[in-house]
Amino acid sequence: MHIMKKSVLYFLLFIQMGFAQSNLSWQGYFSYNEIKDVSESRTAVFAASENALFSKNLVTNVIKTTNTIDGLSGQTISALYYSAIFNKTIVGYENGLIIVINEADGSMLNVVDIINKQLPPNIKKINHLMEIDGVAYVSCDFGIVQFNLATMQFGDTYFIGDNGAEIIVNQTALFDGFIYASTNNGIRKANISNKNLIDFNQWETIATGNWSSIVTFGTNLYAINGAGIIHRFNPVSNSFTGFITLSQSSLDMRATVDYLIVTTSSSVYIYNNQMALVRQINTNQIPESRSSFTCSTIIDGAIFIGTKENGLITTLLSSAVNFENITPIGPSRNNIFALQTTTSALWTVYGDYSVDYNPYPLDNFGISKFSATGWLNIPYEKVFGAKSMTRITVNPSNENEVYASSFFSGLLKLENDIPKILYNQTNSGLESLTFVGPDYIDIRVNGTAFDKTGNLWVTTSRIKNGLKVLKPNGQWQSYAMENILDSAIDNNFGTMVIDKNGTKWLSTSENGVVGFNERNNEFKKITTGPDTGNLPVSNVRTVAVDTRNQLWIGTTKGLRVLPNVSSFQSEEQMTANPIIILDDNLAQELLFEQFITDIAVDGANNKWIGTADSGLFLVSPNGQETKYHFTVNNSPLPSNVINDVEINSATGEVFIATAKGLVSFKGTATAANDDLSNAYVYPNPVRPEYQGTVKIAGLLDRANIKITDIEGNLVYETISEGGTIEWDTTAFGKYKVASGVYMIFISAQDGVETKVKKVMIIR
């Protein structure tokens, strides 16, 4: 096997420098529906979702989003605070990270001091930020930290539990010169002017028990305990007295000049300075929302309510009738489990299963579609009760016909974006597993694929006849798999692919890869052992056929390649090979022991390989060169857990579904065209501020491209792989070319067809 040296170090340096300068190649498709916290200025509301932010300017009505493409972490946000004095937004995370955004220029500073503290990692969560005289008091799951908003430096850390122990601090408040902390073990107070607050003895416990919130409002100090009772502080007795009992525990309490706002999961309570209830908003008052509340605030007579699943909702304090959702449109959730692209649309589903294919707890999420008109979210109420949908498949000959696999309920068919029928044991050839008992219905459809004649092939896990086909005339046919599978009722299916010969390749959990061709009604399998297929393990998650008719096999313990899918016809026992590369002069197996979740083949026959915990790899057609290895550390990936990868063959946009959000990478790997009639150049003109490359798209495979200046001097030449090439606007990589018009001469490999394009470069 051909062996080649990888230049990994150079590649990683390039990525880190490249992404620091510009993320023009990346796009984010985040969900902003799960609101973790809100903050406000006089003219804007700021909201933090799971791992992305948005703000709305209440004067201009402009909504701005910020996510990992802009430099945010993909970790889970737990607190948000906007400082009007410094014009900075501080984002706190569950893992202790703080990101400070300078709103004037959008620049971000990652502050990792809390992450680096010698403390257990599960107690670093940031709960609240309070600003006093240029210092943010950061409430954490271990205590309180001072953070100077002018210098961006941390000051003292206060461990205020009994005998200086770590203690969960939920919120702090300043009242009459004292700092008060509501904790899971009492309310504690200390004099703010005391220079020795790192001594736990300086903190006095004035109430016991669990306290969720504490806020100064007007001339009073209020706190809420775990039982949901609002208390008022009495300075004379140095104690709290309960006087309002909420129906639920409080999730959030904050104050403006005129109002105290308390949020529970089902209600928002708004009190005036006399603590009279001015408004109460309940979840059931908001039409088309079944989501619980998480937090809320008031800006200039407008109430903003954060919800768990429906984003940010606003209404006027003076009118309880009209509610407006101001959340940026996106997918329903960030944890997208599977994707399917067409040239004009992207479909997503959110259902999932564990590493060992357990779909419980069952998910009640719908389906989302992204197209030129934006996001269409089809809610669970419309999908006939289909739970845990794990795959989505578009009919290539009719893009209006879409099928979603449910790993519990069967197969859902959609026509023109509308769910039409749920195929199950009552109306189709699908069968429920039976080992639980005859009355329990559980139909675990997963991998599906269309063949060239419009048949939809369907796999169902843990039954005897696991492979079925739905024919265009609506007839179903089953194929018995007992003889090929070691134990059919223990077997789960992953993805499926159909090759040029019509052979179906099925990934399985217990039996490696199973190939099937109905022409001879023949099954064969590739599994472990040197004489039975050479896979590293029998648990195969994904299969992909490339443009050279090789079968790429992703297992839970590494990668294998079957050199030619036609060996299904010619060989009794097919054998897959590892890809051996040289790394530091040592022969190594590419992606050795990696848990591979998906493999996508782009228009230039490169392979995009997703992993369960190591991010995304792009390797050359033969796997010898690792072109990219994207992770959370060197790219806008929000998570190293890659669920699925799909490529738009027309645009080359690579969609990457991670456990923490959907992003895409615009590479050059579009499918080759049949002719040059659609060849085009972008961007054109190239303006001085543009830092990226010029792309020439709509090409034939192996087209010759020559670029010259207006005098005819050659500055660049290449041969395309697939439908797009990139030019870095240099003369053969030596120096940036000058301003002017450049001629692009394109000719097909056989020389029959030619095209001339122009591009203007402005320096």
CATH class of one domain: Mainly Beta
* Helix percentage: under 10%
CATH fold-level assignment of one domain: Immunoglobulin-like
Classified in CATH, the superfamily of one domain is: Outer membrane usher protein
Low-confidence stretches: 1-23
Count of beta strands:
64
How would the global form be characterised?
Answer: globular
Number of helices: 2
Largest sheet: 4 strands, antiparallel
Strand order of the largest sheet: 1-57-56-55
Output the radius of gyration. 30 Å
Mean pLDDT: 92
Structural class: mainly beta
Distance between the termini: 47 Å
Strand content: 35-45%
By CATH, the architecture of one domain is named: Sandwich
Pfam families: PorZ_N_b_propeller
Protein name: Secreted protein (Por secretion system target)
Keywords: Signal
Structural account:
- The protein has two helices and 64 strands.
- It is mainly beta.
- The two termini are 47 Å apart.
